[in-house]
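User: Sequence recovery, please. Input:
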């Protein structure tokens, strides 16, 4: 099970789910305290901005970020939940949940997975740059990008509500 939440709900979500792995995608300089129950080796902190195109002074998600994310996901044994957070729990984290589900279950239909994401989180608006990078690296031939475009922008929200994305369907 993958859980997604905003930064403000990391401690509560980790405690509720009894997760042992955490993926954090935050802008450079954003303060993050790893929950005590998460070992340092089980916490991946990716420092990048929530942008889809290069902007001066900002860190654009790149191939190195995506390789690191996919390697972290492939090392997850799925015995306990994985929690993913970004600042608001709406864009970078929802993209990462979708990407990890697609990577770990390559037989899963991209459109069905995108629909499951929308059902789980009305505010999910996955970062298009992360989706495009993963689509290319996973050899999905544009299907991930199209599926995420098909669910459209999520409902406006200051921050997302924690939610679970189920694997093993």
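Assistant: Recovered sequence (169 residues):
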């Amino acid at each position: 099970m993958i859980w997604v939440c905003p930064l403000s709900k990391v401690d509560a979500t980790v405690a509720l789910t009894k997760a042992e792995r955490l993926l954090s995608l935050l802008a450079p300089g954003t303060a993050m305290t790893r929950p005590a129950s998460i070992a340092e080796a089980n916490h991946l902190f990716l420092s990048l901005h929530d942008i889809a195109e290069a902007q001066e002074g900002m860190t654009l998600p790149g191939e190195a970020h995506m390789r690191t994310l996919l390697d972290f996901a492939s090392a997850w044994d799925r015995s306990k939940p994985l929690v993913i957070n970004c600042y608001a729990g709406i864009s970078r984290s929802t993209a990462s949940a979708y990407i990890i589900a697609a990577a770990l279950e390559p037989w899963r239909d991209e459109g069905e997975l995108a629909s499951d994401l929308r059902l789980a989180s009305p505010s999910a608006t996955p970062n298009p740059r992360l989706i495009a990078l993963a689509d290319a690296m996973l050899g999905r031939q544009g299907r991930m990008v199209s599926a995420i475009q098909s669910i459209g922008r999520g409902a406006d929200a200051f921050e997302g509500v924690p939610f679970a994305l189920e694997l093993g369907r």
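The first helix runs from residue 10 to 17.
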